[in-house]
């Protein structure tokens, strides 16, 4: 497909989106800002925001906020050494009507909910906080979509989020960090409450104030510390609005009265950099008491339909205890073979980054031999401040200085470009071509230098992203023309909690920084494509996805049933899954006793 065709397809899609939005606005009697140029429309919107603010007494609110900040200062707790695990910062923090988007009426053809799924929907529409969980493929994301539809039909303003970008794409949401405006969430409560009250952050503030229901998916990866911080921010931000009243059920207004809908499976991946699991949080326990009125366990898996053998072995691994029958099945999976096309679509999962990188390098060389195509090296453009050492000691998690790609190479996106359009950190696709000078202005301005034949002319890379299977089996194809990403090393103004330098990865299509990102002194900046090779990926990147063809290497998953379980449960059937390094690991797989205990309590409800 030529580039012009790609651009046209994109244009058509944007037009269709605009048409849909206009139709929705007309239906709801809302005035459309579409006829205005974009900036003007934004100004109109901001004026409305200013007016809304009149509802609150700003001085009184500020006093309350500072008081609350002192009262609720969060301690570091045992998670004090939390590592910086999420390497991006939101591209834009802007509030959009999409945050509170209407949804279509339920379609009679859509699959019907199981009794447990229906119970979750009923609790959600009753206005109570809801936590629901279930085995991988039990339809947690699917049920969330139904819940969101039902709540919006009640006129509620629902913010849809997940703990990772890829998980957010599945439910048409954004990351909870981005929604909440907290980036990595490293600063203390007072910092956020003060920050959200300056004019620059009015959009974040407005989101906190106007949301009725906050949905968070894949909560097994949410740290106790961040969850409790979000709860305190909610209370702090909304204090001027609702005080510290009790809600309809006589509860203290957690999250300042926002209803919480949380979903995830603690038998899958735990949070990065923290030993505590979310259900150990006192705030979580208060909000979601172990009772049928607040918690639901979905028991049936819909992913491995028709493969009871695989379902059975997954249930065993989940609890860290694999039977002889289960071992035999996994043993047979060592010898699964795929046809040529299936092998191309296969996802290879590893526990370690070094294995992922090795496998991807091998596949790139194989591709070159097979097609005779050229491997293109994208060298980053580095800007290092005068007083900084040269070469600059880039942190190990900075984007690579040299990125190698080729046409037909499988690649993965490295930050959340546009989660609503399914372009999230972890989204996978295939390189379809290179964009040459003159075909796009933005690329010329911000493109990195390339080496290799024809390098002068090659200034961009075009990727066709895989369709994302939504909860209800629709597919959305996205063809994406890569923007560039700025990777910065900053010395923050407030020195952070640890006084260390913080690495901030920021991205924007224009290459310009957004207001919120202009904090601290820039030491060095790297311009690079936000891509990495992705025939192989880490198990973390695969959470929440279904993989029709899968190879799992279990090396490194010992002692961590969550990793083995997450990896193997991406498969839709044992026939389309190849398992490697299984013997050594299966003896060691142990489930976390805290998780087993938590699940047993849920079973008894
Ligand atoms: N009631 C249902 N009827 C038919 N299909 C369903 C139903 N519920 C879920 N599914 C299908 O099952 C598959 C898995 O669902 P989903 O991805 O929501 O599971 P999940 O619990 O979120 O999985 P994971 O824990 O791996 O993220 C999807 O293809 C979904 O469409």
From TrEMBL:
Its cofactor is Mg(2+). SMART domains: AAA (SM00382). It catalyses: ATP + H2O = ADP + phosphate + H(+). Residues 46-59, 510-519 have a biased composition (Acidic residues). It comes from Tetraparma gracilis. Its EC number is 5.6.2.3. The keyword Hydrolase applies. Keywords: ATP-binding, DNA damage, DNA recombination, DNA repair, Helicase, Hydrolase, Nucleotide-binding. Signal peptide: none annotated. This is ATP-dependent DNA helicase. Belongs to the helicase family. Residues 10-27 have a biased composition (Basic and acidic residues). Residues 126-288 form the AAA+ ATPase domain.
């Amino acid at each position: 497909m030529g580039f012009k065709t790609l651009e046209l397809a994109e244009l058509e899609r944007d037009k269709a989106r605009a048409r849909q939005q206009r139709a929705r606005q007309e239906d709801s009697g809302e005035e459309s800002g579409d006829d205005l140029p974009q900036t003007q429309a934004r100004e109109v919107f901001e004026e409305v925001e200013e007016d809304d603010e009149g509802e609150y007494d700003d001085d009184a609110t500020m006093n309350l906020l500072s008081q609350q900040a002192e009262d609720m200062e969060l301690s570091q707790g045992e998670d004090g050494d939390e590592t910086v695990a999420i390497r991006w910062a939101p591209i834009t923090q802007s509030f959009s009507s999409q945050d509170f988007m209407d949804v279509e009426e339920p379609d009679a053809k859509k699959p019907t909910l199981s009794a447990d799924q229906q119970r979750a929907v009923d609790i959600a529409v009753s206005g109570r906080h809801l936590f629901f969980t279930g085995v991988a493929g039990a339809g947690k994301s699917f049920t969330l979509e139904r819940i969101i539809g039902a709540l919006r039909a009640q006129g509620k303003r629902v913010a849809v989020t997940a703990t990772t970008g890829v998980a957010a794409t599945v439910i048409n949401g954004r990351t909870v960090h981005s929604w909440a405006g907290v980036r990595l969430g490293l600063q203390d409560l007072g910092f956020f409450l003060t920050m959200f009250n300056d004019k620059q952050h009015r959009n974040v503030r407005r989101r906190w104030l106007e949301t009725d229901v906050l949905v968070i998916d894949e909560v097994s990866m949410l740290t106790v510390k961040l969850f409790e911080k979000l709860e305190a921010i909610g209370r702090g931000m909304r204090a001027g609005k609702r005080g510290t009243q009790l809600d309809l059920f006589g509860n203290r207004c957690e999250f300042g009265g926002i209803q919480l809908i949380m979903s995830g499976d603690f038998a899958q991946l735990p949070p990065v950099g923290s030993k505590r699991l979310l259900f150990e949080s006192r705030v979580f326990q208060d909000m979601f008491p172990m009772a049928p009125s607040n918690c639901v366990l979905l028991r049936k898996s819909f992913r491995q339909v028709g493969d009871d053998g695989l379902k059975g072995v997954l249930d065993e691994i989940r609890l860290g205890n694999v039977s002889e029958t289960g071992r035999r099945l996994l043993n047979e999976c060592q010898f699964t073979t795929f046809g040529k096309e299936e092998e191309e679509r296969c996802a290879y999962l590893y526990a370690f980054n070094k294995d992922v990188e090795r496998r991807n390098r091998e596949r790139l060389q194989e591709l070159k031999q097979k097609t005779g195509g050229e491997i293109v090296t994208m060298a980053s453009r580095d800007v290092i401040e005068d007083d900084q050492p040269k070469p600059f000691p880039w942190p190990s998690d900075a984007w690579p200085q040299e990125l190698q790609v080729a046409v037909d190479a499988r690649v993965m996106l490295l930050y959340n470009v546009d989660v609503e359009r399914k372009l999230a950190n972890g989204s996978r696709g295939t390189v379809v071509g290179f964009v040459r000078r003159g075909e796009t202005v933005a690329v010329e301005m911000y493109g990195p230098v390339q080496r290799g034949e024809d390098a002068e002319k090659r200034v961009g890379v075009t990727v066709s992203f895989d369709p994302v299977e939504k909860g209800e089996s629709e597919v959305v194809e996205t063809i994406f023309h890569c923007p560039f990403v700025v990777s910065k090393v900053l010395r923050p103004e407030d020195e952070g909690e640890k006084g260390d330098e913080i690495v901030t990865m920021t991205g924007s299509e224009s290459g310009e920084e957004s207001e919120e990102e202009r904090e601290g002194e820039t030491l060095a900046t790297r311009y690079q494509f936000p891509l990495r090779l992705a025939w192989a990926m880490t198990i973390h990147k695969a959470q929440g996805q279904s993989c029709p063809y899968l190879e799992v290497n279990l090396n490194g998953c010992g002692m961590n049933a969550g990793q083995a379980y997450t990896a193997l449960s991406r498969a839709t059937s044992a026939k389309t899954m190849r398992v490697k390094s299984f013997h050594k690991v299966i003896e060691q797989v142990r489930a976390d006793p805290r998780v087993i205990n938590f699940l047993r309590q849920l079973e008894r409800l």
